[in-house]
Write a structure and sequence with these properties.
The chain is α/β, with parallel strands linked by helices. The chain is built from 10 helices and 14 strands. It has 2 domains: 219 residues, Rossmann fold (3-Layer(aba) Sandwich), CATH 3.40.50.300; 66 residues, 2-Layer Sandwich (Alpha-Beta Plaits).
């Protein structure tokens, strides 16, 4: 079931079109990556979903019906720019926001206790926010975002400013939320995190959506038919053997075996490649090189910019 969708959303700011007929659908229990270069329009779309601003054209749907103002209580939003009250005590502030999202004081205290213990920040309950490090403040804001168990979570660069240890801690909590069935929109420039966390992505470039689909399908679609072969024995010159139908990308000696990277040309099959190679070498391993999301991102954006 689709929890949230945006259909043909347009948003203009003076002479600048921030979103140009952008549509996305976020399935229940899915981590949906919202990606794009700086200035692509991602933040504008996130602001529209959070009802901070309204689209000029297009429609928003929540749980299969037109989105209502009251749906904001079902959304947890962790913005890239944090927004805690510096002079307010941590616990008092967390309790305030939890109640603002509809929790009773009793339920809010109970849930906050669990989260504060999980993040090992119980000692900061009566401290003012300004006394906390940036990382500590981010932990508090993450807790405030998830404490009321919203139907839709939006994380915009959630690891910004975190050291590796705390980045891993937060990442594990997001993965736990996914495991528990949370629906998440995840916006980041860190493609390694996208591969680890996201199920599906939408990529926006220059206000238009240019790619949308499950990660495994996109990686399969944008692969370059490159294979890595490890073989035993002396290094062999494959130039003449493979010249017409295959391109040698890399050929080197590794610690134990020789490594050959070959790209298919002219639609030749793996069997044809293997038959040629086995005439000369003893093959130890043969595997296809699937592109990373970082490689897919760069390739798709470059292709879009060339049009």
């Amino acid at each position: 079931m689709v929890l949230f969708s945006a259909q043909d959303v347009i948003k203009d700011y003076a002479a600048h079109r921030a979103l140009d007929r952008v549509s996305i659908s976020v399935e229940e229990g899915q981590v949906h990556g919202l990606l794009g270069p700086n200035g692509a329009g991602k933040t504008t779309l996130i602001r529209i979903i959070n009802q901070i601003t309204a689209p000029d054209q297009g429609e928003l749907f929540f749980e299969g019906r037109p989105m209502r103002a009251s749906d904001i209580h079902q959304i947890g939003y962790l913005p890239e720019e944090r927004g805690l009250y510096k002079k307010m005590k941590v616990g008092e502030q967390a309790l305030y926001f939890a109640q603002l999202k509809g929790l009773s004081k009793r339920d809010a205290l109970k849930s906050l206790k669990v989260w504060f213990e999980k993040f090992e920040i119980q000692a900061w309950w009566n401290k003012k926010v300004e006394e906390l490090s940036k990382g500590m403040q981010q932990k508090v804001q993450f807790i405030i975002t998830v404490v009321h168990k919203p139907k839709l979570l939006i994380f915009d660069e959630p690891f910004s400013g975190f050291d590796p240890i705390n980045t891993n801690l937060l990442k594990q909590e997001i993965l736990n939320l996914r495991k528990e069935g949370a629906t998440i929109i995840f916006s980041t420039h860190n493609m390694a995190s996208v591969e680890e966390i996201c199920d599906h992505i939408s990529l926006i470039n220059k206000s238009k959506k240019i790619v949308d689909g499950p990660i495994h399908e996109l990686k399969e679609h944008y692969k370059n038919h490159v294979f890595e072969i490890q073989y035993k024995g002396e290094t062999y010159d494959f130039t003449r053997l493979l010249e017409a139908d295959f391109r040698i990308i890399e050929h080197r000696q590794a610690e134990r075996n020789n490594v050959l990277k070959v790209q298919h040309l002219n639609g030749k099959s793996n069997n044809e490649l293997l038959q040629k190679l086995m005439q000369q070498i003893e093959i130890i391993s043969f595997q296809e090189i699937i592109p990373s999301m970082n490689e897919v991102f760069i390739k798709v954006v470059e292709q879009a910019n060339q049009k």
